[in-house]
Automatic annotation (TrEMBL):
A Pfam family this chain is assigned to: adh_short_C2
Protein name: Tropinone reductase-like 3
Matches recorded under PROSITE patterns: ADH_SHORT
UniProt feature coiled coil, ranges: none
Organism of derivation: Fraxinus pennsylvanica
Family: Belongs to the short-chain dehydrogenases/reductases (SDR) family.
Classification lineage: Eukaryota, Viridiplantae, Streptophyta, Embryophyta, Tracheophyta
Length: 253
């Protein structure tokens, strides 16, 4: 982290679901590279704490409560960002839910609805809100998952919603070109609150580590580095791509 550059000086970045875990890691990385970052999540106290942590690292940070499936809060996220910073250069769509571990055929309809709503539809709706404000050179990064390629049994339906994000990346890259690039990061397993049911049990954790070629789980910094690359001008000729950051786990549809 000490050797990072300043690729986002003068840029404004919104990261959804960014008060902890991978989203926070991405906000921190973009901020350390000079961006003014807007962090958001469902709970005010988490937003306030994240803003404080970022500011303590010298980052220009602003927080807005935004449950991604709440239309008014999505609108507010974009409006407040524009009021505070005047523009939007980067949007990272990171929110997801995995409310159940049932098989697909046993997943109840309200759970199916929630998975599609948070993991896919809300990403689209955030971008519909932000779209008119994205200018030439802007960039969108969607956060999918290695589970998009091989949905594991306990994450099957979640994995399928993440597969949809791969298609969404391709479709939006075409739709938003040439002004806005749209790319995607597909993280492997990262020990966060979200993945705690997989990564806190030692034998499960070991099993996941052994699935990688690099014999370790990912870190939020690994994911942040990839997202920052795709969002930056270093990737100015890259759009519609999925960057798998999973320690060499198999990734082919
Ligand atoms: P995490 O550490 O549990 O953090 C989740 C963040 O999202 C929190 O800041 C939470 O704050 C916020 N959040 C949750 N639901 C939200 C909603 N509906 N609207 C707005 N904010 C919401 O999770 P994570 O592991 O970093 O996961 C982030 C992304 O990475 C997800 O898209 C996930 O699918 C993907 N991913 C994770 C892994 C992994 O192994 N961890 C692997 C592949 C992909 P509040 O509680 O305050 O809302």
């Amino acid at each position: 982290m000490e050797k990072i550059g300043k690729r986002f000086e003068g840029k404004v970045a919104i990261v959804t679901a960014s008060t902890q875990g991978i989203g926070f890691g991405i906000a921190e990385r973009l901020g350390l590279e000079g961006a003014s970052v807007v962090v958001s999540s469902r709970r005010q106290k988490n937003v306030d704490a994240a803003v404080e942590k970022l500011k303590a690292r010298g980052i220009k940070a602003f927080g807005v409560v935004c449950h991604v499936s709440n239309a008014q809060q999505r609108k507010n996220l974009i409006e407040q960002t524009l009021q505070k910073y005047g523009k939007i250069d980067v949007i990272v769509s990171n929110a997801a839910a995995n409310p159940a571990v049932d098989t697909i055929l046993e997943t109840k309809e309200p759970v199916l609805d929630k998975l599609w709503e948070i993991n896919v539809k809300a990403s689209i709706l955030v971008l519909q809100e932000a779209g008119p404000h994205l200018k030439k050179g802007s960039s969108v990064v969607l956060i999918s998952s290695i589970a998009a390629y091989h949905p594991p049994a306990a994450l099957a339906m979640y994995g399928v919603t993440k597969t949809a994000l791969l298609g969404l990346t391709k479709a939006l890259a075409a739709e938003m070109a040439p002004n806005t690039r749209v790319n995607c990061v597909a993280p492997g397993f990262v020990p966060t609150h979200f993945a705690a049911f997989l990564t806190t049990d030692e034998s499960m954790k070991k099993g996941l580590e052994e699935k990688t070629l690099l014999n370790r789980l990912g870190t939020t910094q690994d994911m942040a580095a990839a997202a920052a690359y795709l969002a930056s001008d270093d990737a100015s000729y890259v759009t519609g791509e999925i960057l798998v950051v999973a320690g060499g786990m198999p990734s082919r549809l």
